[in-house]
Amino acid sequence: MTFYQHIQTAQTQGRRLLAILIDPDGFKVEYAFAKAYLEKIPSQTTHILVGGSTNASQTIEAVVELLKQLTVLPIILFPGDYTQITPKADAILFLSLLSGRNSEYLINQQVKGAPYIQKSRLEVIPTGYILIDGGKETAVQRVSNTLPMSQKNREAIVNTALAGQYTGKKCIYLEAGSGAMYPVSVAVVKAVREHIEIPLIVGGGIRSQKALEDAYQAGATMVVIGTAFEKDCWT
């Protein structure tokens, strides 16, 4: 079974997937640090995502190699740009920023990354990435030079997700951004879930078990948490 088939099966069967997002810029490439970090993640964790919005290209391969020594969990790339692609990982979320109109992150970065991916054995998971307003300016917003979608405009968010599905994306990722003041609302997650058939990933601003549960109950197939663990503020 491929990694995508595992995600797809989880959606069909109603199983909950949990991914921990590791930003290489804030992760020490040290055995003891990495071991301690992995030991504190929830037991229900099913995937590890590695990547960030800032330039982490110098350390991402070393981080992935270290993680592969310490865990059997799938390591999936979550690249901020094409320089963060490494064949050492298991798969890649091949992201296209559908919520913005900046061609650099809609298609140009993908074109730059394509030859590197072709030479690798990475499983490619085409993913429609939708940036949602989480109450503060995030690194994704600054780097991509795009504005997040208002949570009040659920129709536009739903239509964007549908467009992603109809253009062949295998997953939709609703992202409030790293360090968001609040997560993607239950209402938004529910609205998108009701209209798309493909797996739904939700991340950003999730700092508690309640927020995690809310995202699942609203229809998320996979929930992603990161900043809460980096700053030890998970409750």
TrEMBL record:
The keyword tRNA processing does not apply. Its cofactor is Mg(2+). It catalyses: sn-glycerol 1-phosphate + (2E,6E,10E)-geranylgeranyl diphosphate = sn-3-O-(geranylgeranyl)glycerol 1-phosphate + diphosphate. Sn-glycerol 1-phosphate binds at Y173, L174, E175, A176, G177, S178, G179, G204, G205, G226, T227. Keywords: Lipid biosynthesis, Lipid metabolism, Magnesium, Metal-binding, Phospholipid biosynthesis, Phospholipid metabolism, Transferase. Mg(2+) binds at D23, S53. Its EC number is 2.5.1.41. SUPFAM superfamilies: FMN-linked oxidoreductases. The keyword Metal-binding applies. InterPro entries: GGGP/HepGP_synthase_sf, GGGP_HepGP_synthase, GGGP_synth, IGPS_HisA/HisF. Pfam families: PcrB. PANTHER family: GERANYLGERANYLGLYCERYL PHOSPHATE SYNTHASE, IMIDAZOLE GLYCEROL PHOSPHATE SYNTHASE SUBUNIT HISF/H IGP SYNTHASE SUBUNIT HISF/H. Prenyltransferase that catalyzes the transfer of the geranylgeranyl moiety of geranylgeranyl diphosphate (GGPP) to the C3 hydroxyl of sn-glycerol-1-phosphate (G1P). Belongs to the GGGP/HepGP synthase family. Group II subfamily. This is Geranylgeranylglyceryl phosphate synthase. It comes from Dokdonia ponticola.
